[in-house]
Specification:
Layout: E1 2-3, H1 5-22, H2 31-40, H3 42-45, H4 53-57, E2 64-66, H5 69-75, H6 86-90, E3 93-95, H7 97-107, H8 112-129, E4 134-135, H9 137-140, H10 167-174, H11 178-192
Parallel strand pairs: 1-4
Antiparallel strand pairs: 2-3
């Protein structure tokens, strides 16, 4: 299943959020209780719908049954600015009764429709796409910025000291102690100023 860069980036965060909610410090499965608490907090979480949609979307986990998978497969190939209208994808799902009130709450926000469409895509991928997910053709061409979770090569830093060594570098190269190195350098400098060398 192909996914857009938008959904490919979000699904790993969404899955990680679910994993965090799943177990407590003792390893007990507490997902049901934590999701119930998350659902109570949805009105307060609306402000996070744009900045961290995956953290709010988990409240809807298990709230949808997908009756038209082709519609959802098409949805997850879309970027954020190309998402379809909520009304057009709503017909492809059955909303659980407990989730209907949450949907109504979210729709009171101007960004609610876009968020719900995103949530449908994430839930669909979480339920149906984990084994079959593949990057879209855009992803195959590469991206200058790595997706979350990908390791990037460390950037070269230029602090203006290229080619210069400090005393520790000299010790590492020459196998001498720092104290000897500094004493020798100090003695050389004093001798150059006309002072007698100490034995």
């Amino acid at each position: 299943m192909k996914t857009s860069r938008y959904f490919a980036n979000l699904i790993s965060s969404y899955q990680a959020e679910l994993d965090d909610l799943r177990t407590d410090s003792e390893g007990n499965n507490v997902l049901k209780a934590r999701l119930a608490k998350k659902r109570e907090q949805v009105p307060q979480l609306l402000m996070m719908m744009q900045s961290a949609p995956e953290m709010v979307a988990v409240a809807f986990h298990g709230g949808f049954t997908f009756s038209q998978t082709s519609t959802l497969e098409s949805l997850v190939t879309k970027e954020l600015n190309r998402l379809p209208a909520w009304a057009s994808v709503q017909r492809a799902v059955v909303i659980e009764p407990w989730a209907e009130s949450l949907v109504r709450t979210v729709l009171t926000d101007p960004d609610g429709e876009s968020f719900l469409v995103t949530t449908l895509g994430l839930e669909f991928l979480q339920q149906h796409g984990n084994e079959r997910r593949a990057p879209s053709s855009d992803d195959a061409q590469g991206d200058a910025s790595a997706a979350p979770g990908e390791e990037q090569e460390p950037e070269d830093t230029d602090d203006g000291h290229e080619g210069r060594l400090n005393s520790d570098d000299l010790v590492a190269d020459e196998g001498e102690s720092t104290e000897f190195d500094l004493d020798k350098a100090g003695a050389d400098w004093l001798a150059a100023q006309g002072f007698d060398r100490k034995e």
